[in-house]
Write a structure and sequence with these properties.
disordered C terminus, binds nicotinamide-adenine-dinucleotide, 9-stranded mixed sheet, alpha/beta, 316 residues
Length: 316
């Protein structure tokens, strides 16, 4: 088994490093937060007093940090201490330009590197079922399997340096926009007297079906896995959704892509964050939409109130 230096043991990095320990790897971890270090220690991570010490003897160095500034500072700090031949894998979500700058720093120091941001949230991190979107050279990708597989359901090579980050921001543009659309649809239905159950029963098997509806439904008590059932405790925090949408907008501006819905989704998540929603799951944006929609909804009709929709055909 390998020795892995793991830097950034927060909501995601903590459970991810625990899965590497469970797979039999030796994990040397570092975080600035003593609470994160204590939890990691309890999960079997060998916690270290600095990032430089965490990379000592490592076959791979995995970073899971808040953003590009922390990533670049970390690489500048540790690259002189990483053993020759080690593979650098950054799993944080960062700006494409910062990600490519990190690849450049790694290459200048003689290391293979990958950007490997993830989808699946804290639940996926805990269960070891994350999707990794990987950017970097083919040979580096081939070497990464033993390190990523214990944390992954899927590991997909998306292209060259930075293409993991490009994939991540495109995916989250879809996710942010679809969560807003699902929330607006529920609020509109409520305003018109439709029961949430009826809308769910139809849309979940019809062309409105999407992850924001059927896995993380913004209305409580319709989907077992939804964070709405836990008072919108994240999950995937609205602040992180805003971060990812901003990254997408910045990339759209730089590349000239016309992303009108992405711009609007960014504005709406900005507003929700400004209202104090940033610490809630991103599905909690439905509360803001509902509040802006005026008086409480009229009661649902008796036909749909108790049972939701009545199915009359088998096709959507
Ligand atoms: P987090 O804030 O819980 O964890 C980040 C950790 O990095 C913190 O514990 C912090 O103390 C530590 N840190 C910051 N600077 C450091 C440094 N210089 N050296 C060592 N440690 C340092 O955030 P998170 O939710 O775990 O997210 C981490 C990354 O994963 C982010 O880039 C985020 O966008 C991405 N992500 C998060 C989720 C999610 O659902 N939380 C999902 C997908 C991707």
């Amino acid at each position: 088994m390998a020795v892995i230096g793991f830097i950034g043991l927060g909501h995601m990095g903590g459970p991810m490093s625990a899965n590497l320990v469970a797979a039999g790897h030796t994990v040397r971890g570092f975080d600035l937060s003593s609470a994160a270090l204590s939890e990691a220690r309890a999960a079997g991570v060998q916690v270290q007093p600095s990032a430089v010490e965490a990379v000592a003897g490592a076959d791979a160095v995995i970073t899971m940090l808040p953003g590009g500034a922390q990533l670049l500072a970390c690489y500048r700090d540790v690259l002189g201490s990483v053993p020759a031949g080690a593979l650098l894998i950054d799993c944080s979500t960062v700006d494409v330009a910062d990600s490519r700058a990190a690849h450049d720093l790694a290459a200048e120091a003689g290391f293979g590197s990958l950007d490997a941001p993830v989808s699946g949230g804290t639940a996926g991190a805990a269960a070891g079922t994350l999707t990794f979107m990987v950017g970097g050279a083919e040979d580096a990708f081939r070497r990464a399997g033993q390190f990523l597989d214990p944390m992954a359901r899927k590991v997909i090579h998306c292209g060259g340096p930075g293409h993991g980050q490009v994939t991540k921001m495109c995916n989250n543009l879809i996710l942010g926009a679809s969560m807003i659309a699902v929330s607006e649809a529920f609020v509109l239905g409520e305003r018109l007297g439709l029961s949430n159950q009826a809308l769910y029963d139809v849309a979940s098997v019809s062309t409105g079906q999407c992850w924001a509806l059927t896995t993380n439904c913004p209305v409580p008590d319709l989907v077992e896995t939804s964070r709405a059932n836990h008072d919108y405790e994240p999950g995937f925090a609205a602040a992180l959704m805003l971060k990812d949408l901003r990254l997408a907008e910045s990339a759209a501006e730089q590349s000239g892509a016309d992303t009108a819905i992405g711009r609007l989704a960014t504005e709406l998540y900005q507003r929700f964050n400004d209202e104090g929603g940033g610490g809630y799951d991103f599905g909690a944006i439905i509360r803001s939409i509902r509040e802006r929609s005026g008086e409480p909804a009229p009661a649902a009709t008796e036909a749909t109130e108790a049972t939701g929709a009545t199915e009359v055909t088998g096709t959507a």
